[in-house]
Write a structure and sequence with these properties.
The structure is a homodimer of 221-residue chains. The first copy, chain A, is mostly helical and 221 residues long. The first copy, chain A, contains nine helices and no strands. Chain A starts with 23 loop residues before the first helix and ends with a helix. At the A-B interface, α5, α6, α7, α8 and α9 of A face α5, α6, α7, α8 and α9 of B. The structure holds a DNA duplex (19 and 19 nucleotides).
Chain lengths: 221, 221
Amino acid sequence: MPTAASSPAPRRGRGRPSRPVLTADGITTEAVALLEERGQDGLTMAALARRLGVAPSALYNHVATKQDVLRAVQDDVNRGIDCSGFGRLPWDAALADWARSYRDAYERHPALVPVMAVTPVRSAPHTVEMYERVSSGLLAAGWPAHLVTNVVVAVESFVLGSALDTEAPADIFDPGDLAASAPGVTTANAARPEGDTARAAFELGLSALLTGLRGLLAAPG
Amino acid sequence: MPTAASSPAPRRGRGRPSRPVLTADGITTEAVALLEERGQDGLTMAALARRLGVAPSALYNHVATKQDVLRAVQDDVNRGIDCSGFGRLPWDAALADWARSYRDAYERHPALVPVMAVTPVRSAPHTVEMYERVSSGLLAAGWPAHLVTNVVVAVESFVLGSALDTEAPADIFDPGDLAASAPGVTTANAARPEGDTARAAFELGLSALLTGLRGLLAAPG
DNA sequence: ACCTGAACACCGTTCAAGT
DNA sequence: ACCTGAACACCGTTCAAGT
């Protein structure tokens, strides 16, 4: 029975257990599960502790803050992002696959988007590994070193913004009472094909971004 | 003395005031100021009420939730975004100016990024006006109606992701102890020019995105 | 209708006491 | 070292009571 067992019986003893009942990895695993099941607001230190069969204060023997938990969760999410195209496919196809996988991962965890944008990569091993595959792939494909990080950040910014956009309600652009003063919005809305509109906008932007990047690599300066 | 006066003397009377002391606009104005002065965590209903010289519960006669306050603040921020290029400049130059102004506005208010991505535009008049200028500008420039909203959303996703990126610490990509396993990241970091790196990545991405969009408009399908 | 003040059901976090 | 349970300083929000 791994630490991931749900709803373990609460400990009744008063003092230090003979063997530790918590580990950093176990906390992270349960935090990911909790985030997946109950969403952003469901991930509280109290709920996490209950899942682990422990008092909330016990968590603080293993993590300093809730932000620590979020950082660990985020590194775990990044572990699942597919970077396998680099070195196997042309750089632009690899970058496109990475961007799609990256967006899919954060579509499932939009609450982590602001965390990802701001958290240093050190002590986040899977995150470092992801960036290493992308950066070394771009370098090997002939991208000038001084542009590589900017390319990565530009694509990442688009991906994270697009991940937030997947949360938008379908009628976000419906001007309601203000329709009379917004004929252009109304026309554009009416002509927009139905279906997965967030994905359509993402694919359009990704395609445009890659076209521009190919041009930049071909004619630098 | 407008409602924006700071630290008014608290009312001491017990019942309904002879004239209302709060208005929706006054609440929004003070909320913007509070967000600007104290940042995301500083904008609490208690702090907002104190600034307005009122008990926290009084706010609930004018707004239903704190989310309401955030939505109003956000519409106010959108009022300041420059859309003046549309109809005056070529569509791509107008779109670039809009994107820069949009990013600048949310760089000052990164906490509003997740709100913006998700909030319906109805009952947000300045936001509708912004989208109207952009949409009608693209339509007038010859963009097919069925692509206009996707273009807007794609650029917006890039802008909002880039706004979050401005919050990142300068050493976010420093692999620390993991440097030995990340030679590509280390090389790219070392070669990246110093200065406003977030802006450099934004300008690179914006340029690439616009190049791709120009190509798409020229050769649709 | 629109305010006050008390109350409710939470938060994340700290800390003394236990083993 | 690593747990419990009580406590602290907050949150956003509700609601009866006042005018």
